[in-house]
Amino acid sequence: MKYHEYRNGHLIQTNKKFSALTKKQKEHIGRDLRERYIKRMKYPGVKLPPKKREQILDEVYEIIGKKDIWIRATRFLISA
Fold it and tell me: Residue 32 — φ and ψ, nearest 5°?
């Protein structure tokens, strides 16, 4: 039980990877990433600077935490 914790009365696996999430959870995370990335883009086809990408990821991690989706804190690859 090295990677399990009790939170809010539930046993949670804390080292879950993105691939282990349900389809609905993956779609939700992907949609949030895409919406925020597109909102911050000034010119189509131009990547955002690393600082802005980090801000987007931080926002999405907050949303993931609020939705009680538990995945380990590794960074996603954002592709436009």
Answer: -65, -45
Q: Which residues contact 68 (CB under 8 A, 6 or more apart)?
A: 8
In this predicted structure, the answer to whether residue 31 has a pLDDT above a threshold of 90 is yes
Neighbour tally for 25: CB within 10 Å: 15
Percent of the chain with pLDDT over 90: 9
Residue 4 tokens, joined: 């399990």
pTM, 2 dp: 0.66
**Is the sign of the CA dihedral 59, 60, 65, 66 positive or negative?**
positive
Query: Does residue 70 sit in helix, strand or coil?
Result: coil
